[in-house]
Amino acid sequence: MEADSPIxxxxxxxxxxxxxxxxxxxxxxxxxxxxxxxxxxxxxxKTSALGVLLGVVLPDEGEVDWxxxxxxxxxxxxxxxxxxxxxxxxxxxxxxxLAIVSKLKNISHFQAKDVLSKVGLADRAGVKFSTLxxxxxxxxxxxxxxxxxPNVLVFDEPTLGVDPEGTEEIRxxxxxxxxxxxxxxxxxxxxxxxxxxCTHVVVLKRGRRLVNGSIEDVFWSQEKFVLAAPExxxxxxxxxxxxxxxxxxxxxxxxxxxxxxxxxxxxxxRFAFENGIVLSRLEQQKSSMETRFINLMKEEVLA
Length: 303
What we know:
By secondary structure, this protein is of the alpha/beta class. It is built from ten helices and 13 strands. Helix 5 links the parallel strand 6 and strand 7.
């Protein structure tokens, strides 16, 4: 496989559960070394997307190709997954649970303590899974995903139900795995988690992909203009339905515009002047990640 070839290619996937359409024309490419975040509110299709990627959910339409077309990724041990919350045999020890995982993956040469040491649980190898805190259970779930040393890791909301200290430990662990060269796909509804861990992101709403790209391109390259003038009501009236802007909001005595592609501050100033308004304020800013996400969630999604 060439270095610039995607490890995973998802093409035009649809998935329904009776009357509920969970995924609608979902497409995605993941390249080696990326940390791809799947971001969206509850019910947006994140878990269904991961299920389709892993092959545990069959799409109604569309295709999923691994490693340039190989669909036998389970046999090659190339993928490890944690579907939250982590569920294992409560009355078995961590070593015993990992032994079951290794058998399911057909891995003969396996040392439980070697894997547990990677997540800081080597001293708990003989402890029953039932005694672990939610944070340690998620960490153990990551350990199970590491059995067989896979190249690709898939994590479904890895910090779900975990306290702040445990959350930071898990995020540090995922960052360390990325530094080791792993390709990681994770779902989350937490903006801070996506920003901290991911190199790339796909945003879902009601099963449809709204946007996909690098974190910088999706969230931090979004420009906004902040305007003010003595005639604020007139100023708002000329921009609210203008094709020059994608959105127009009032903020503390000013007007915040998200410009259409290619629109410059000079274009905005000229348009205002042509409509009889002399601007007293015109600033070009970058919108925050939170603002960008909120604006994306306001976009209409076709049924």
